[in-house]
Design goal:
heterodimer, A: mainly alpha, 2 strands, B: mainly alpha, ABC transporter involved in vitamin B12 uptake, BtuC, 13 helices, 75% helix, 1% strand
Chain lengths: 305, 315
C-alpha cells in the first residue's frame, strides 16, 4: 500500500515534469510548425544554470529564479539569431539545424562546466518528509514539484485560453498571414512563444536537477519522451500534452516499480531484473506506435480548421 | 540517361577513383590510420545511401534507420557468440533479419505521413534499442565483443585490412549500382511519382503503400548489410549503434551530401566523418564548431553539397 501510493505520486510528479517540457515543445511545434530537437538542450541548460546560480548566490530560490531568466534569455537569443530564419522551411531542415545545436550545447557545457556532472543541493526546508496520509511520508521536494507544475499548467491554460496574448497565439497558429495582415507583430509573438517554451524546458530541467545529477546529454533521453507525449496527445494541443504526459509518466514509473516483480512470476529473477527496465522503457514507445496506427492525429487533437 | 561532364559527375568519378586507389596510398605511405578511417566512412556511406533511397527518392523521412545497423550487427554478434562463425550464415541472417524488421515496421509506419512518420520510425528504433539493452545474455547495455570476424573460408580474409576495405567498398559500389538501377526503373519512377503527387499516382491505379513498402524494405536490407560490416569493423556491437542520435547522424550525412542524388550521401559521409576527424584533432571540443557549421549549411546551403556542385556548373 505504502509503495503503491509512493510510486503513484512519483509517476504523477514525473508526468507533470514531462508536461512542462512537452508544453513548450507542443507550443512551438503547433504554432510555429517548428521541430525543435534542441529543446532538450534548453532543459539541460536550465539545470546547469540553476546549479551554478544556486552555488553562486547561496540561495536556492534566488538561484532558481536567475536560472529561469537565463534560460528564457537564451531561448530568445537562439530564436532571434538562428531559428526564426527556418520557419516555413521543411521539417528536415529543422531536424538538421537543431541537431547541430545539440552538438554545440553538449560541447559548450563540457567546455564551461567540465565533463563531470554537477549536483544541485536542496535547502533543508525542502528535504524533510511530509506526512500525506497517516503513516505515509513523502519527500517535500517532490510535493513541491507537483505543486509548481500544476500551478504552471493552470497559468498556461489561463494565458493561452483567457488572455489577449493567448488569443493572438491561437490566432497565429491557425492563420499566420491573416493575423500579420491585421497588424499584429507576428515575429515578436513567435519570439515570445519560443522564449516561453525555453523557460518551461529550463524549469523542468532545474526541478529535475536535485533528483538526478546534472550532466551532459541529460536532455536527449527526455526530449524523445517529450516528443512521444506531444505525438500521443496531438500536436499543438496543450490539453493533450497534459493528459499524455501524466499517462507516460505513470507508465514509466509504475512499469519500473512493478514490472520486475510481475516478470519474476514467469522468468528467473536474474532475467527479470534485466528485462524489466528495457520492457518498461519500451512500453511507452509501444503506446505511441499503437496510438499512431489507430489515431494518427493523436488522442486529443488540437482544434484546427 | 546520357552521362554529361559536369561538376557533379566529375566529383562522383573522382570520389570513386580516390576510394579505389586509397589502399595503394596507404601501403606506400604506411599510413594505416587512413585505411581504418576510410573503412568506417565507406560503411557509413552505404548506410546513408540506403537511407537516401527512401528519404531522397521516396520522400519517406525515416528517423530510425540506425536500427538496421544494430540488427545487422547483432545478427553477426549473436551468431558469433553462439559459435556460428561462418559468414555464409551470419550475413544472410543479418540481411534477412533487417528485411523482416523493415517489413513489419514499414507495414505499420506507412499508415502515417509527414512528421508522424518521422516519429513512429523513431519509436520503433528506440524499441529495438531497448530490446538490445535488455539482452543480458549478449552483454545488455555494455555491448557484445565479437572475438572472431565472419569467416568466409578461403574466399576472403576479413582480418586483413586491405581485403576488408575492398569488401566494404565492393558492397558500397554494388549498393549504389542497385539503387541507381532501382531509381531508373519503372518501380523507381512510381516511388518518385508517389513522392511528388500521391493522389495522382493513386488515381492512375498504383497501390501507393505497397510500392512504398517494397522500397522501405530494400532500404532497410541494404542498411542491415552495412550493420554487418560495421560489427566486423569494430569487432563489437552495442545498443549505442541504434540510439536515435546515430539515426540523426545518418540523416545529416544524407542532407549534407544532397538528398535524392545518387552520390550525395557518399560525399556527405566522407565530408562529415573527415570533418569530425579533422576537428577532433584540432580541438577536443570539435562539436562546438561542427554544430554551428551544420546550422550554417541549413541556413545558406540548400540542397547540400550536391546542390552546390549543381550550381557550379551553371556559374
Amino acid at each position: 500500500m505504502l509503495l503503491v501510493v509512493e510510486q503513484f505520486l512519483n509517476g504523477l510528479q514525473f508526468g507533470l515534469l514531462l508536461f512542462l517540457l512537452a508544453a513548450g515543445l507542443t507550443l512551438v511545434f503547433g504554432i510555429m510548425d517548428f521541430v525543435n530537437l534542441a529543446h532538450g538542450s534548453l532543459y539541460m541548460m536550465g539545470a546547469y544554470f540553476a546549479a551554478s546560480f544556486v552555488a553562486w548566490t547561496g540561495n536556492f530560490i534566488i538561484g532558481v529564479m536567475l536560472a529561469l531568466g537565463a534560460t528564457l534569455l537564451l531561448g530568445i537569443v537562439l530564436e532571434l539569431v538562428a531559428l526564426r530564419h527556418l520557419y516555413g522551411r521543411d521539417h528536415l531542415d529543422h531536424v538538421l539545424a537543431t541537431f547541430g545545436l545539440i552538438l554545440f550545447f553538449n560541447d559548450a557545457v563540457r567546455l564551461i562546466w567540465g565533463p563531470a556532472g554537477l549536483s544541485l543541493p536542496l535547502p533543508t526546508w525542502l528535504t524533510v518528509p511530509i506526512v500525506i496520509l497517516p503513516g505515509i511520508y513523502y519527500p517535500a521536494y517532490r510535493l513541491a514539484i507537483i505543486a509548481v507544475a500544476l500551478a504552471v499548467a493552470l497559468m498556461l491554460y489561463i494565458v493561452v485560453m483567457r488572455t489577449r496574448v493567448g488569443m493572438l497565439i491561437r490566432a497565429g497558429a491557425s492563420n499566420r498571414e491573416m493575423i500579420g495582415a491585421l497588424g499584429i507583430n507576428i515575429k515578436l509573438l513567435y519570439t515570445l512563444v519560443f522564449g516561453l517554451g525555453a523557460a518551461l524546458a529550463g524549469l523542468a530541467g532545474l526541478m529535475q536537477a536535485p533528483i538526478l545529477t546534472v550532466q551532459i546529454g541529460m536532455g536527449e533521453n527526455i526530449l524523445i519522451l517529450a516528443f512521444v507525449i506531444i505525438v500521443i496527445g496531438g500536436i499543438g494541443s496543450i490539453r493533450g500534452a497534459f493528459l499524455a504526459a501524466i499517462l507516460v509518466g505513470m507508465i514509466d514509473t509504475l512499469g519500473r516499480a512493478f514490472l520486475p516483480d510481475l516478470l519474476r512470476q514467469v522468468l528467473s529473477s536474474a532475467a527479470a531484473s534485466t528485462a524489466a527496465p528495457a520492457l518498461s522503457s519500451m512500453l511507452i514507445y509501444l503506446l505511441m506506435a499503437i496510438v499512431l496506427i489507430a489515431r494518427p492525429e493523436g488522442l486529443f487533437p488540437a482544434n484546427r480548421s | 540517361m546520357k552521362a554529361r561532364l559536369n561538376a557533379r559527375n566529375a566529383a562522383a568519378v573522382l570520389v570513386v577513383i580516390g576510394l579505389l586507389l586509397l589502399p595503394l596510398y596507404t601501403s606506400l605511405s604506411g599510413n594505416i590510420f587512413a585505411l581504418t578511417l576510410f573503412t568506417r566512412i565507406v560503411i557509413f556511406a552505404l548506410a546513408a545511401a540506403s537511407l537516401n533511397l527512401i528519404m531522397g527518392y521516396g520522400g519517406m523521412m525515416s528517423f530510425g534507420h540506425a536500427a538496421y545497423l544494430g540488427i545487422g550487427g547483432y545478427s553477426v554478434g549473436i551468431l558469433a557468440a553462439e559459435g556460428i562463425g561462418s559468414g555464409f550464415i551470419q550475413w544472410p541472417v543479418a540481411v534477412l533479419a533487417s528485411a523482416l524488421f523493415a517489413l513489419v515496421i514499414g507495414a505499420l509506419s506507412l499508415r502515417t505521413r509527414g512528421v508522424y512518420f518521422i516519429m513512429i520510425t523513431l519509436a520503433f528504433a528506440q524499441m529495438a534499442y531497448y530490446v538490445a539493452s535488455g539482452l543480458s545474455r549478449y552483454g545488455g547495455d555494455d555491448g557484445l565483443t565479437i572475438y572472431k570476424r565472419s569467416d568466409f573460408g578461403g574466399l576472403i580474409n576479413l582480418s586483413n585490412r586491405v581485403q576488408f576495405y575492398y569488401l566494404c567498398l565492393g558492397c558500397l559500389l554494388g549498393g549504389l549500382y542497385l539503387i541507381w538501377r532501382i531509381v531508373n526503373s519503372r518501380f523507381g519512377m512510381v516511388v518518385q511519382g508517389l513522392r511528388s503527387n500521391e493522389a495522382r499516382m493513386q488515381a492512375i491505379g498504383f497501390p501507393a503503400t505497397r510500392y512504398r513498402l517494397v522500397c522501405f524494405v530494400i532500404s532497410g536490407t541494404l542498411c542491415g548489410l552495412s550493420g554487418a560490416l560495421l560489427a566486423n569493423n569494430t569487432d563489437f556491437v552495442s545498443p549505442a549503434v541504434m540510439y536515435w542520435t546515430r539515426s540523426g547522424d545518418l540523416m545529416v550525412m544524407v542532407i549534407l551530401g544532397g538528398m535524392g542524388s545518387l552520390f550525395g550521401p557518399v560525399i556527405g559521409a566522407i565530408v562529415l566523418l573527415l570533418l569530425e576527424e579533422f576537428l577532433s584533432q584540432v580541438t577536443e571540443y570539435w562539436a562546438m564548431i561542427m554544430g554551428p557549421l551544420l546550422l550554417l549549411i541549413v541556413l545558406f546551403g540548400r540542397g547540400g553539397i550536391d546542390g552546390l556542385l549543381g550550381r557550379l556548373r551553371r556559374a
